Fold these 3 entries.
Entry 1:
Amino acid sequence: MVAGLFGTDGVRGEVNKYPMTPAIAMRIAIAAGRVLMRGSHRHTVVIGKDTRISGYMFEPALTAGFISIGMDVTLVGPMPSPALAMLTSSLRADLGVMISASHNPHEDNGIKLFGPDGYKLSDDNEQKIESLVISDLENSLAEPKHIGRARRLEDASGRYIEFVKNTFPKELRLDGLKVVIDCANGAAYKAAPQVLWELGAEIIPIGNLPDGFNINLGCGSTNTSLMQKTVVESGADLGISLDGDADRVLLSDEKGNLVDGDQIIGVIAQSLLEDDQLRGGGVVATLMSNFGLESYIKGLGLKFIRTDIGDRYVIQAMLRDGMNLGGEQSGHIILSDYNSTGDGLVASLRVLSTLLKAKTPASQLCSKFEACPQKLENIPFYGENPLKDTALQEKILKQKERLSGSGRLLIRESGTERIIRIMCESDNPELLDEVMDELVDVISGATG
């Protein structure tokens, strides 16, 4: 039952179906507590959530699980994932839990776990939790006199707002800049506009009226057209589009052109390099990052490290090589001098400060390299993963051979959804179209 409980970003799935049921959530809390509780001190866990209506179901289930094994619970309510990571470390808690399915629709939810240092749990700890979830947990429960307590931290949002503002250069203000901020009807619907307004920007907020069901619906970093349109119509200098838990961000320049995570990494890398703040002599990205970014970074005389897909693997490489900048094309941007995970607001402020210093339009600042032609496709599947089929793998291999020397092909199962993700990249646009069309046909056929 528990096989594959954790994906690339915690536990995630459709609400009220395994593994996202209240009963499993309670067992995850008990198991996680057992793995993370060390020593005789009073143990604490911080629990945050995004704006999904199902958060009201999972929050008490997780709270009950932690209290039952003797952990005190601090509830912070709707809060971005990076805020939860920051608060876990700041409050010296033993564990942080974020209830969110990030960029997924409201029908899904998830559970992300952070260690006492604010970093996501290791694969080893997740495996230990998985094995415990199906074990007899009755022996883990505390005696009645040792059960935990729960309290709400009323000023949690204010603490995060001040934290984010303190990452912005104190000699600068955003006066005179007009910024569209798309909050995805998600966890940053209050904090993001407040940060920008307090720093002096004229803000145009969209996606800031969550109702429990509209998170990421027609807005946010996976649906940026409204943000791009609003930038052009309002004459804004920049558009910022967060996802449901605000750990990723995409931008729009003043012309409405989308600025993806690769371009954002390029902007920040050059900025840190010029300010003598870039550590480790390079940046970390993933297999999905465009070859144009790799060429640009190497052209700056820097190292370019690629990892498996997933911000956790980016962070691991950053820690290993002493680097303070990494990210993903999807918009997870990690600035480890400030936070232990991707933070859409912190990354946005770094771009805004660079924009102020450069005194150039965003369309000039945010076009650091010409992207190699790239296509992305997502193909849903409902039964067994079709990529396990030998005949399909042979067909995929033939397409890889066609691209040899002129491009890259990456095909994988999503770690958070039942989707096959295809990334095809080539400097030959006609070949790119042919290969992608063929792959979509054969993989779609294999999914039934």
Entry 2:
Amino acid sequence: MTAAHVPLIERYRDRLPFADGDPLISLQEGSTPLLQAPVLSEMVGASVRLKLEGANPTGSFKDRGMTCAVSAAVRDGAKAVICASTGNTAASAAAYAARAGITCAVIVPEGNIAQGKMAQTLIHGARVISLAGNFDQALTLVRELTSAHPIVLVNSVNEFRIEGQKTAAFELHEDLDGDLDLLCIPVGNAGNITSYWRGFRELGAAPRLFGFQAKGAAPLVEGHVFEAPETVASAIRIGNPVRWEDAMAAATESRGAIRSVSDEEILAAYRLLGSREGMFCEPASAASVAGLLKYGADGASHVACVLTGRGLKDPETAIAHNDGRVIQCPVEIGAIEEAVLGDP
């Protein structure tokens, strides 16, 4: 079995809290591609690569942590898991719970979950509760619920999530032979930047970590909770990150920073990735590239940007920001020729 087909826990069992014989709930996650980005490289004057976490089974980086969280839950005899989610965690938890044959419930902010993510969550059979509130309120309620009932919380407050997600740092280190100066990563609930730094520290590596929040949901940048976070990048529309202190420590210890980018900058990077690099990611993923373009490579020679989820997670945004590229045309060859061959 090649590395690309070895379940993540098996591949890195010596660095994860699992023993031989433990139950393993896997969809063969991890081992995601690291793609060269020639256009971005030229724009920032550094060698830039894209870590394609949308290649995980449910289309986002969440699967790395979820295989560990659900495997541990099953090992401990759990019959149900629950999470609060803006979408990706819900889809991942639902899929891994389905694979494990246990119950999954998710609480999502009403009207603020992309349809691609909702479709995934529903098809995997999760019980979906639509909350008349935001993600932070949903997480508060879920934590209260799990403190009173025997249900396992699988948000990134769960240490097994962080353990699983740190494996992306292992892969980057292996793929680049340790030659990485700077990592750009979107920041929402801040579990992922926390995980990468844990992974790099375990390896004795220390690339600078630059985390990017959307301007309308930038509590780590502004230093206070956002009671009503708002951004087109729904996956990072979080006003009170559960891993706040860990994320700040990761940025400080790695000599990096947490910075903000506007929705306009996120969408510009989103379109550039699609039209120039051939990469269709969800808007939140593009925050890493938006940050790189806005602030530059800061003297780094080797840069990686994490694209946290695939574009089909949020088809509405892609359609809404298509810049008029859909051309209406009658059934007539002359009109077709003009549409195909005319000025774009």
Entry 3:
Amino acid sequence: MNGIDETEGTRRAMVAEINADATDRAELEAVYGEVWDTRELQEKFEVLGFMAPFCVVRRRSDGVKGSVMFQHWPRFYFSFTEDKP
């Protein structure tokens, strides 16, 4: 690994867009479906890592690994996507 994060520019732009206008839970649910606050996320998933605006997670119910997106404030996690095998 060369130490260069080739996704940094894209992720920074996504973080700025996501956090430019705080979205409430109902709006996020309308777009992404299931949404979790921090406590709910910890109940449903084991958090393996962060790289804003993403978290790598493992779903506790079946061990499936994937990622969720999050916004800073109010802190909500959404858009769970399973890793492809």
